[in-house]
Amino acid sequence: METSEAAAYTWTCNPSDTHPVRRVFAWGCVLLFGSSIIMSNAILGVALTAVLIASIATFLFKSKFTIDQSGITASYPLRKKFYEWSQIRRLKIFQHSAYIFKRKKPSNLDGWTGLALFFDSNRDEIVKHLNEYLSEDVAR
């Protein structure tokens, strides 16, 4: 957890550090499926193992998040998302994460268009910063 500027709040989180048993299970599945495919076709096995790791990269590797006056930036291992405060219509807060959406009503597209914030022990501080910048009409 770091504060880079007076106006910005930045932190990093690795969900697999919070859930070590799930991390072992995830890496075990990657090794099991990857090695079984590699035995039949090496090139296909390496390619599909890379796809499998990429699909669970937000769980396995660190993500960096920044809350500032302009909005929220989430830097995941393979992509980066930015939402301006005016774009946010709905917020769902859970024990280890929060999800931010551009739609006020739940939709089937929420899983692809939403922004996931992960946090560890700094949950209360992050929620305080979110409430500081979010407008009152944001659904919760």
Task: Give a quick set of tags describing it.
elongated; 7 strands; single chain; four-stranded antiparallel β-sheet; three-stranded antiparallel β-sheet; alpha+beta; PH-domain like
Ends distance: 25 Å
CATH class of the largest domain: Mainly Beta
Rg, alpha carbons: 18 Å
Helical content stands at 40-55%
Number of strand elements: 7
Q: Number of helical segments?
A: 6
Output the helix-strand order. Answer: EHHHHEEEEEHEH
Largest sheet: 4 strands, antiparallel
Strand order of the largest sheet: 1-2-3-4
Give the strand content. 15-25%
| Shape descriptor | elongated
The pLDDT mean sits at 90
Q: What structural category do the secondary elements indicate?
A: alpha+beta
Low-confidence stretches: none
CATH topology of the largest domain: PH-domain like
Number of domains in the coordinates? 2
Describe the structure.
There is one protein chain. This protein is an alpha+beta fold. The chain folds into 2 domains: 9-16 and 62-133, PH-domain like (Roll), CATH 2.30.29; 17-58, no CATH class. 41% of the residues lie in helices and 24% in strands. The protein has 6 helices and 7 strands, in the order βααααβββββαβα. The protein has helices spanning 15-18, 20-40, 42-55, 57-60, 110-113, 123-133, and strands spanning 9-13, 63-67, 71-75, 80-84, 90-93, 97-101, 115-118. The strands form 2 sheets. The chain has a 4-stranded antiparallel beta sheet with strand order 1-2-3-4, covered by helices on one side. Strands 5-6-7 form a 3-stranded antiparallel beta sheet. Strand 2 (63-67) and strand 3 (71-75) form a beta hairpin. Helix 2 (20-40) runs antiparallel to helix 3. The chain is elongated. The two termini are 25 Å apart. The model has no long low-confidence stretch (mean pLDDT 90).
